[in-house]
Amino acid sequence: MADRTRLYCDRVLTMAGSRPSGPQVIEIEGDRIASIKPADASARGADGVRDLSGLTVLPGMVDAHTHLDFDVLPGLELQQAQVDDAELAMRMVNRGIVNLQMGVTAVRLVGSRNFMDLTYRRDVESGRFPGPRVITATRSIQSSLGGRHPNMLTIDSIEGMRAAIRENILRGADLIKIFHSGFVGTHRDSTLPIMTRAELQACVDESHRFGLAVTAHAYGGLSVDECFDAGVDCIEHGFFMSAAQYARGAELGRWVVPTLGVFLTEPGIPELPHWTAAIRERLQRAREATWESIGLLKASGMDFALSTDANHGGVAYEAVYAAMGGMSNEEAIAGVTSHGGRLCGKPDEIGVLKPGSYADLFAVEGDPLQRIEALLDVRFVMKGGRGVFPAIELPRPAVAGGCPPRTG
Fold this sequence. Notes:
- The chain has twelve helices and 17 strands.
- It is α/β, with parallel strands linked by helices.
- The protein folds into two domains: about 5-60 and about 350-385, Urease, subunit C, domain 1 (Roll), CATH 2.30.40.10; about 60-345, Metal-dependent hydrolases (TIM Barrel, Alpha-Beta Barrel).
- The strands form four sheets. A seven-stranded mixed beta sheet has the order 3-2-1-4-15-16-17, with no helix packed on it. A five-stranded parallel beta sheet has the order 10-11-12-13-14. The protein has a three-stranded parallel beta sheet with strand order 5-6-7.
- It is globular.
């Protein structure tokens, strides 16, 4: 018989289309939620009930675009990759724990080296060490115009791309990740396509033939237009997208995954000392475009899920930035919970609290519907019906940065 656990909660945000009022008891059977029911004060002291009174309980967060191979905010990604697989494996384990401690119970990995993500997923699922649930693209695919990188497959032929996608699928990929635009720190125009239209279409056709969604690194401009034309399911980053492109994405039923903190964290990547003046100016433009993109996305109604790109444990900051940029607190919270579950194809299992969903949740001090920064005040985390082992005290930097609205 499966273990049963009960949680007494003063406030629950299920993110499942309902908002229970007043105290609730969440009953958990095994790794799933059995019920969420109203409770009176007597339930607080009942035998076998975990008391989470005074806290707000939410679904575990989903970081919808991350890599456990590196940390994004320090920059120098290529240099971070110049280590052997054993070192990367240790980093993945440590970063997974950091995510879990901050309430991130699922990650969508969009590119890892040598199928290390599959080994990591297997060992987390088997209980060898704690970590978030993993939805993964395995190896990401780019052309040589992206520049050589040890964590990516660099291929310049249609048949080579098809073969790589087939191997990803055979090994257990959940989705396929490609690169169709350049990089702000590398290319003068980072919105230009780095694959030919024929290469892009081949990647989409091969992936869709096996029922896998395709997600594309694409900042905006022609790269996003070509992705929409080819049938790409999701745009990663997208901060240079125009209002018309967001509207088209909404009309087509496509997704976008913003990575707001990459540029809005301040001091952050644009302030790193190693950039040339020209690159620093491009990074500043990217910061301004990222800020403006929040309003464009909100106005368009395009489906979205928020993500860090690899700021481990920091996905709550993405919700804070989204709210700073004009989204309601509830929209921002959905961006780090239920929207991620939908994007990952698990709308009834992750990112929500409802009977049948995974018992993945976290509790925070305060009410994030009133004060979004409350998402950072994590007091309890549960994954699969089990409380995360005693919390590690993590530094919680003050929320700063972003681009405030211009006046005048």
